[in-house]
Amino acid sequence: MTIALALEQLLNGIQLGVMLFLMAAGLTLIFGVMGLINLAHGSLYMVGAFACATVAAWTGSFWLGLIASLACAAAAGAIVELAVIRRLYDRDHLDQVLATFALILIFSEGTRWLFGDFPLYLDIPPLLQGIVNLPGDASYPVYRLAIIAVGALIALGLYLLIGKTRLGMRIRAGESDREMIGALGVDIRTLYTLVFALGSALAGLAGALVGALQSVQVGMGEPVLILAFVVIVIGGIGSIKGALYGALLVGVTDTLGRFLLPQLLALFVDPSQAGMIGGAMASMLIYVVMAVILAVKPRGLFPPAHA
Amino acid sequence: MLTRENTVNLVLALLLLVAPLAANAFGQPFYVTLATRIAILALAALGLNLALGLGGLVSFGHAAFFGIGGYAAGILSSHALSYEPMIFGLPGTVQMPVIWIVAVVASGLVALAIGAISLRTSGVYFIMITLAFAQMVYYFAISWPAYGGEDGLSIMVRNQFPGANTMKPLSFFLVCYLVLLAGIGLFALIRASRFGAALQAARQNETRVATVGIHPYRIRLTGFVISAMITALAGALYADLNRFVSPSMLSWHMSGELIVLIILGGTGRLFGPLAGAALYVAFEFALGGLTERWQFFLGLILLGVVLFARGGLLGLLAGKAKHG
């Protein structure tokens, strides 16, 4: 094991963490403001990836595809909010789970209808192809570094949006007391649609960015969705800060676990056994981490002050 | 007492018995298999209904217990057929009653561990944590190659039940049907018992339950474990029905489907899971015959039920539940 390899794995972990943050930020924002648990968030991730792949194939430009992914995911989110989600705010979580589970079925099968069963492929744009050399003989793909940079920018942008703007002030007010800000004359229904569309756009962006690393296919959003749930449960549901730390923790733990555990076990048992047991243990690692954190802090690392 | 709900329940139970008998008489074993599927899914959902309907515990991870039951059947029978001893030199078995006991005990232990941690939380946290634990079991099954990993495990010959030839569709159906009836009876007993009253009270008002000196946590944990055991028993039967067990039994889609069955039938109702399972399998069969994309329409129907028809099928047939 070399330092270079470890550094690459660490960066992979951060890159996964950044993707999870884009998903988790939307989920946690929607839960914090509207009190809604949205299983269909993974479907919006898928919508973003498909929009990007389709537009990139038509126009030959990844960048137009990226814009399309934001627009399509936000539009899909807004439509879903207007048609279905807004009827669910006053319902219990069970109804929300079921209705959004139904949305997953509709989105997945609908996409399969439109695009067929075969995955689409999305190329990394020429500008971001290639690798960079890092200190200690390590090298790393430019595109993955760019994803990390985008994630950092989004985190900063969200911090400024929520903390420093008028819209952000309304969002925070909506989290604390929705009746009161309605009484103060804020159009709460439009605000909810906006927040939902914003969360959807972030999920769509994540889908488009990952689409260039993996294939774009139906069901791609579901593993990510569940990891994003783990992230927000660890971070504290409703907390964007918690989502950021939780995402990085989950991303790095998962990646390094898969890398290190088999090697660690190889010190004790023979290598083939170590690979098998280590792999199985690594795939469970983040859930163990989650269980430990919840056993100590049942409301996550950064529980929101209210609620 | 023959209330409207009891009449509907009786009709449902009889229909599920008569339909496969008739199908068998007319030489249509496929419909017998369909009815077996209904009975098994109903049993799985019945288990979940104990936690979800009575205790208000929205577990989004019951596929874990369903799958553990399935793997109990698959692993025990594969060892029995290969004559390889398992850990501690124990032999495998093809006897269903033994398999069921193993399935129930194993899932009970896992449920005790998962429940002990998950029940410290509530609401959305509980939903997501049960989901996450089920995913943990799912990924473990996928990455553990000894029992087929991602490919799953075939059960060469359906396991045996004393006095019945389980390879005959009708005999296997009757075994499943009797287990389902026993399950429904157990559910009714629990619901009417002091424990059941406490479990329902803990859902309705936790503070009051604590005030009268009952520990809601222990009541819920007990309910959660029993619920998991029933679902695991259904899982063992399901593996025998398909003669195949794979990680898909553990997937979160399965957890979602189990909740869907309950809601389609009517939450907390004694026969809700059976009504829901019958409706679900009927949809699957009817829509699946029309279009490959039947899940799209299932999604639409489900959305309609959640938004506009919250009582489910039993709510429609038998009116509102007497007490919430």
UniProtKB/TrEMBL annotation, chain A:
<dbReference type="GO" id="GO:0005886">
    <property type="term" value="C:plasma membrane"/>
</dbReference>
<feature type="transmembrane region" description="Helical">
    <location>
        <begin position="275"/>
        <end position="296"/>
    </location>
</feature>
<feature type="transmembrane region" description="Helical">
    <location>
        <begin position="224"/>
        <end position="240"/>
    </location>
</feature>
<feature type="transmembrane region" description="Helical">
    <location>
        <begin position="66"/>
        <end position="85"/>
    </location>
</feature>
<keyword id="KW-1133">Transmembrane helix</keyword>
<feature type="transmembrane region" description="Helical">
    <location>
        <begin position="247"/>
        <end position="269"/>
    </location>
</feature>
<dbReference type="InterPro" id="IPR052157">
    <property type="entry name" value="BCAA_transport_permease"/>
</dbReference>
<keyword id="KW-0472">Membrane</keyword>
<keyword id="KW-0813">Transport</keyword>
<feature type="transmembrane region" description="Helical">
    <location>
        <begin position="44"/>
        <end position="60"/>
    </location>
</feature>
<feature type="transmembrane region" description="Helical">
    <location>
        <begin position="190"/>
        <end position="212"/>
    </location>
</feature>
<dbReference type="InterPro" id="IPR001851">
    <property type="entry name" value="ABC_transp_permease"/>
</dbReference>
<feature type="transmembrane region" description="Helical">
    <location>
        <begin position="142"/>
        <end position="162"/>
    </location>
</feature>
<dbReference type="GO" id="GO:0022857">
    <property type="term" value="F:transmembrane transporter activity"/>
</dbReference>
<feature type="transmembrane region" description="Helical">
    <location>
        <begin position="97"/>
        <end position="115"/>
    </location>
</feature>
<dbReference type="Pfam" id="PF02653">
    <property type="entry name" value="BPD_transp_2"/>
</dbReference>
<comment type="similarity">
    <text>Belongs to the binding-protein-dependent transport system permease family. LivHM subfamily.</text>
</comment>
<keyword id="KW-0029">Amino-acid transport</keyword>
<keyword id="KW-1003">Cell membrane</keyword>
<dbReference type="GO" id="GO:0006865">
    <property type="term" value="P:amino acid transport"/>
</dbReference>
<keyword id="KW-0812">Transmembrane</keyword>
<protein>
    <submittedName>
        <fullName>Branched-chain amino acid transport system permease protein</fullName>
    </submittedName>
</protein>
Automatic annotation (TrEMBL), chain B:
<feature type="transmembrane region" description="Helical">
    <location>
        <begin position="295"/>
        <end position="318"/>
    </location>
</feature>
<dbReference type="GO" id="GO:0015658">
    <property type="term" value="F:branched-chain amino acid transmembrane transporter activity"/>
</dbReference>
<feature type="transmembrane region" description="Helical">
    <location>
        <begin position="64"/>
        <end position="83"/>
    </location>
</feature>
<feature type="transmembrane region" description="Helical">
    <location>
        <begin position="221"/>
        <end position="239"/>
    </location>
</feature>
<keyword id="KW-0472">Membrane</keyword>
<feature type="transmembrane region" description="Helical">
    <location>
        <begin position="259"/>
        <end position="283"/>
    </location>
</feature>
<dbReference type="GO" id="GO:0005886">
    <property type="term" value="C:plasma membrane"/>
</dbReference>
<keyword id="KW-1133">Transmembrane helix</keyword>
<dbReference type="InterPro" id="IPR001851">
    <property type="entry name" value="ABC_transp_permease"/>
</dbReference>
<keyword id="KW-1003">Cell membrane</keyword>
<feature type="transmembrane region" description="Helical">
    <location>
        <begin position="170"/>
        <end position="190"/>
    </location>
</feature>
<feature type="transmembrane region" description="Helical">
    <location>
        <begin position="124"/>
        <end position="147"/>
    </location>
</feature>
<dbReference type="InterPro" id="IPR043428">
    <property type="entry name" value="LivM-like"/>
</dbReference>
<dbReference type="Pfam" id="PF02653">
    <property type="entry name" value="BPD_transp_2"/>
</dbReference>
<feature type="transmembrane region" description="Helical">
    <location>
        <begin position="98"/>
        <end position="117"/>
    </location>
</feature>
<feature type="transmembrane region" description="Helical">
    <location>
        <begin position="37"/>
        <end position="57"/>
    </location>
</feature>
<protein>
    <submittedName>
        <fullName>Branched-chain amino acid transport system permease protein</fullName>
    </submittedName>
</protein>
<keyword id="KW-0812">Transmembrane</keyword>
